[in-house]
Amino acid sequence: MDSRRDSTDGPEDVDAAFAEIVASLERDGMGANWPDPPEFDVPEDEPVAAGIRPEGQPRVAAPDPEEDDDEHFVPPDPPPLPRLRAGTIAALVVIAIGVVLLVVPSLFGLSPQISVPVALVVLCGGVGWLVLRVRPGPPPDSGWDDGAVL
Which of 36, 115, 128, 143 has the fewest Cβ atoms nearer than 10 Å? Predict the structure, then answer.
């Protein structure tokens, strides 16, 4: 059952209500001074498929399948990764030691009650070291031109 027909808020016949609204607007002169829509030059012999192109719309040129497809964008090779500095390598080693302490505490001869807090402190220290090494802006050896600085 349609929930719109059960409602007491709306009219019973929506189409009749819409026609009444349009008629009252036309009586008031609404739309009388609107310009006519532009006419498009469409050949009469050109078929128009339903739902593809409405009547009166200009034809869009289809791509030519015989065009040369050899011209396409080839992106340049990505730049090489920067070399890791000694401080970065040391911080990564500290993180690796923290992971080993957390996973295999018996390798260092520690009990799990002691190795878990120590491993977490070592892991946090390694991550903090990496974060503190991050510099804002370009590297110091990049030259005098910083590019666009806003």
Answer: 36
Cα-Cα-Cα-Cα dihedral sign, residues 89, 92, 94, 96: negative
How far is Cα 53 from Cα 39, in angstroms, rounded to an integer? 15
The residue whose two tokens read 């189409």 is 15
CA angle 146, 148, 150 (to 5 degrees): 110
Q: Which residue has the tokens 């090489």?
A: 80
Q: What is the pTM of this model?
A: 0.43
Residue 84 CB: number of other CB atoms within 10 A? 11
Residue 52: Cβ within 10 Å count: 8
List the structure tokens of 112: 């799990």
Backbone angles phi, psi at 45, to 5 degrees: -80, -5
